[in-house]
């Protein structure tokens, strides 16, 4: 039915007859001639319908936008001056000899080129939304990325092995999606949050190198970049250490960026410890495009006569830090008030600041509501450590470290991304990948009053920290690493525990007793007894990688049929009510408060 | 840690130092020297530990089967006569200089080379079972097949687009796996039985060519070749007709067989109508390796004075057919009795037979309990149509056509697969692919008292049969096709309906009223209104394709972590009980008869 895609028809076809299939993007009547912009997934081509072929012309007159048609015709050069350099097919046009309507179209509920559509409209009419060139581009890019990943991993000895979707519920971390069993009354499968344990078992089974591009599921409250089901590039290898694993996957990401979007990433990604990232940027996924950095002030604020600073400076989990904005003196009082409001989102109670008008004048040269509260040594330390120049503005965060990091970290990005930030050179566009390494093994969960795993309970501690598992879990560092780019976590992984006795110690540190460990993870503990190899891996979020490459606003723009933030499919109306008969077969009933379908 | 895989170490490495990582397959002490067969996923290599390196030798003495070790050593030629031609590494051995135990192993619960293990043992200790070379081979083959499929489809413009796993329940066909929604009380997602509607929507959205290697789910009672979750190679294309689609995927399968297992399939697969396949073989997936065929006798048995034959011959849905076994006269009475028992499994009430001792003698030359019941014309027709020679045996089936086809079809294979069948040349080993086409659109479901779709409700009828949808659905033929090989359905597909009004007519024929159609398939009907292109596709069962290629007994042997026939994972003990808290969050409770976890 088709000689070539519309969007790929070039001068190579000049003088030849072709068949094309596609959709009517636009029909223009001009000087008695009908021009059709015919669209397929590869782009547009111009079709010319002359009235000297009346049968064909009559059909051309009848067609409307989004009709699906077939065109037979001859390729000719466009008249001089009528070329369209935006199109691959822009130098030619097709003179229509025969026109067949393959399927008519009702008038679409919106114009495909309307950029102001609400997300609800787009997701309800997703099929038409997907016809838009941007969505076609995004999903083709997604495919190209996945295929490049496969090519790279294949060339490096990784094999794709499928792991089960119907697995066991281990309520740890996020909430599971459950699937009631019909055969085993009162029992449930869980959809996998990741194939973590299965891929480790495949290493124990000797497959050496595994990967899978695989759906994972988390029943969490959704944020802009989360979906109930998301796709991981999930990888695991035996017999490589932390550094070797990072190198392998750094080259993978570099290769994929190069081959998918022609971007050459840095030859060698910077490697930064978790501690350094928190200290300098208040974040374990710092956006290095923003050149602003924190200044540590906790030590110098311990003895100031200003409780707002001294109290957190003297707390074990407290922090005082500054963010110096070069030439920030130009910010208006209104802007500063706006930022004060902004940091409240992150729990900060306020946003202290100092404008450096004339540093040489000492205290007199500083404009600020708080200067009077700080002794000379503190002021000197602020100026020296921030390196503030006349005209700069210094913001302060003082609170529990988490609040300081979150609020000042968000402020750093917010100011960096403003036109002011760009203008002053705080923001350098481009791609800024890095590795964040040396994560803590555990963080303390105040609510549960126990240590929880920062990564997951199967992550190996550093060899030299094994003793800390029992004595001081908070100081125990993990062989874990995240790949971060432009402030997004693209992937994360770790070297895993491959010795049963260490796995048991980690379970103990997490207050998982032997019975619970056996019941939940007995199969892992058993597998580790039979010569489990040293192994580790990483998982990348495909949705995120592609969203970032496509420059899309949301991961929903790189997923064909996404759910809303209320975890609904507006196209098919899933989830939906089901028959009572189905529930009965599954040995469940709805809770009394719920209505049943008749 | 490793220079090369153990199993790939060849003479190219002679004289060089290497590092190897792997598992101890076997340790032999021979003349004061310790030989280790070291195994990794690529195979074995022999490691020689001499006592003149006491530190290393002491470690060598300590190691046991399935220890995970690292070996540094030098590659040398094996002594003459000690080569092992079964191994890629069989001409060399590695003289161990340094031996490191990476992880010790408890004594495995079974020998890896034990071929008599029960399936329960194998699935309970799946990690060790997967270390067996056969399982390593099967999963590597599976990967190779999937990758070849991707390469082919990529080269032909197909793009992999992911479709949702959390979809809408449409109870039609098999039973859905349901997933309760936490956010929408009383509502459920369903896991997809196939991405059928989504791939059609992608065609309407203009993606032109789609594929996905994707998990599908059916909550059915399990048979030997079924799993609750299985993997489809799911494909769809626009703008190709039935023949073109078949050609494209025939070449794909031929390419994949060639590149994965080096098998050259027939240049052009035979194409057989459903009607012909049923007539000649009683099956829509005939195993053409078996050379026996049915003989139609319904017409000649209408007027015989033998109710067993004449009653079905005069029923609308009845059939009388024969299966002539050349030289079958050699079968013993015991064997014939055995076959009589066998066909009862398929509902046959008995198995009539005639031994042709001397055809020239007419009735006298035939040995059979039923000859006396048949008139001369019937006997003559039997001999003529079957072409039976002296010494042959003719079996008869007479019943509802389904029972005749099932029972005589099974008998045909059973006899074909016996040593007798092979010896007499009824069975020709090799690969016998074919297309079965022209399936009926509908079959009548007596229980539901309505027509149901043979393929699925989105399959297009033949253009010339559109009118039959309303007038005579039973005679309406579909644009559907199955690819069959050696008696297995490898894949099936169809040209789809791309016009809304035809889709509505098919729903009507299926007694799905407008309201129900709107509620279940409204999104499809809407999409078809906007210039849906002509499209069609096919889905192959990856598990089956690989099982067949691997010559495995069960699809469980080509799946890393399969479920049992009771839909259980013996390794992880899924499905399992869950916390009451989880159920409460999902707005469900167990039925009163079920016990709750405390």
UniProtKB/TrEMBL annotation, chains A, B:
* Signal peptide (from-to): none
Keywords tagged on the record: Aminoacyl-tRNA synthetase, ATP-binding, Ligase, Nucleotide-binding, Protein biosynthesis
One GO biological-process annotation of the entry reads: aspartyl-tRNA aminoacylation
What protein name applies here? Answer: Aminoacyl-transfer RNA synthetases class-II family profile domain-containing protein
One GO term describing the cellular component: cytoplasm
Q: Which InterPro entries match?
A: Aa-tRNA-synt_II (IPR004364), aa-tRNA-synth_II (IPR006195), aa-tRNA-synth_II/BPL/LPL (IPR045864), Asp-tRNA-ligase_1 (IPR004524), Asp-tRNA-ligase_1_N (IPR047089), Asp/Asn-tRNA-synth_IIb (IPR002312), AspRS_core (IPR047090), GAD-like_sf (IPR004115)
The record ties this protein, via HAMAP family, to: Asp_tRNA_synth_type1
Family the UniProt entry places it in = Belongs to the class-II aminoacyl-tRNA synthetase family. Type 1 subfamily.
Q: Which GO terms describe its molecular function?
A: aspartate-tRNA ligase activity; ATP binding; nucleic acid binding
Record has Ligase as a keyword: yes
Q: Out of the domains of life, which is the source? A: Eukaryota
Q: Which PROSITE patterns match?
A: AA_TRNA_LIGASE_II (PS50862)
What phylogenetic lineage does the species belong to?
Eukaryota, Fungi, Fungi incertae sedis, Mucoromycota, Mortierellomycotina
In this chain the Aminoacyl-transfer RNA synthetases class-II family profile domain maps to 139-562
């Amino acid at each position: 039915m088709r000689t070539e895609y519309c969007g790929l028809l070039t001068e190579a076809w000049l003088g030849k007859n072709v068949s094309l299939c596609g959709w009517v993007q636009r029909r223009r009547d001009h000087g008695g001639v009908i021009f059709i912009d015919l669209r397929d997934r590869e782009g547009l081509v111009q079709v010319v319908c002359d009235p000297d072929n009346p049968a064909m012309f009559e059909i051309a007159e009848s067609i409307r936008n989004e009709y699906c048609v077939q065109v037979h015709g001859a390729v000719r050069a466009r008249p001089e001056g009528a070329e369209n350099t935006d199109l691959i097919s822009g130098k030619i046009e097709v003179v229509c000899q025969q026109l067949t309507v393959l399927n008519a179209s009702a008038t679409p509920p919106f114009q495909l080129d309307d950029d102001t559509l609400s997300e609800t409209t787009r997701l309800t009419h997703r099929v038409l939304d997907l016809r838009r060139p941007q969505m076609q581009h995004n999903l083709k890019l997604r495919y190209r990325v996945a295929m490049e990943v496969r090519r790279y991993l294949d060339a490096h000895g990784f094999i794709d092995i499928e792991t089960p979707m119907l697995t066991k519920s281990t309520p740890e971390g996020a909430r599971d999606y459950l699937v009631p069993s019909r055969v085993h009354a009162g029992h449930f499968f869980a959809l996998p949050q990741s194939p973590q344990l299965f891929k480790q078992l495949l290493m124990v089974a000797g497959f050496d190198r595994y990967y899978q591009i695989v759906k994972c599921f988390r029943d969490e409250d959704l944020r802009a970049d989360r979906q109930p089901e998301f796709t991981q590039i999930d990888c695991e290898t035996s017999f490589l250490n932390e550094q070797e694993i990072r190198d392998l996957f750094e080259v993978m990401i570099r290769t994929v960026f190069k081959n998918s979007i022609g971007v050459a990433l840095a030859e060698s990604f910077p490697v930064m410890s978790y501690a350094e990232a928190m200290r300098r940027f208040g974040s374990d996924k710092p956006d290095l495009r923003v050149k602003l950095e924190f200044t540590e002030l906790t030590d110098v604020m311990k003895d100031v006569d200003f409780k707002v600073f001294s109290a957190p400076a003297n707390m074990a989990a407290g922090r005082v830090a500054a963010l110096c904005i070069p030439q920030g003196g130009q910010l208006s009082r209104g802007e500063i008030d706006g930022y004060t409001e902004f940091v409240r989102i992150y729990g900060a109670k306020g946003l202290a600041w100092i404008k450096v008008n004339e540093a040489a004048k000492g205290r007199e040269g500083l404009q600020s509501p708080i200067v009077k509260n700080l002794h000379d040594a503190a002021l000197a330390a602020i100026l020296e450590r921030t390196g503030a120049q006349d005209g700069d503005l210094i913001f302060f965060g003082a609170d529990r470290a988490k609040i300081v990091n979150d609020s000042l970290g968000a402020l750093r990005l917010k100011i960096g991304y403003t036109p002011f930030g760009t203008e002053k050179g705080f923001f350098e566009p481009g791609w800024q990948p890095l590795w964040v390494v040396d994560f803590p093994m555990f963080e303390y969960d105040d609510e549960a009053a126990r240590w929880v795993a920062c990564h997951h309970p199967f992550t190996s501690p550093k060899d030299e920290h094994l003793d800390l598992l029992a004595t001081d879990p908070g100081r125990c560092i993990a062989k874990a690493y995240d790949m971060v780019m432009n402030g997004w976590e693209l992937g994360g992984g770790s070297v895993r525990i491959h010795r049963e006795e260490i796995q048991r110690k980690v379970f103990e540190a997490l207050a998982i007793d032997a019975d619970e460990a056996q019941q939940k993870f007995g199969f892992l503990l058993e597998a580790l007894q039979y010569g489990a190899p040293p192994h580790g891996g990483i998982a990348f979020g495909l949705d995120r990688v592609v969203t970032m490459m496509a420059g899309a606003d949301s991961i929903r723009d790189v997923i064909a049929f996404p759910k809303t933030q209320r975890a609904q499919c507006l196209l098919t109306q899933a989830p939906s009510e089901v028959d009572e008969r189905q529930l009965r077969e599954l040995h469940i009933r709805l809770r009394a408060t719920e209505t049943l379908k008749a």
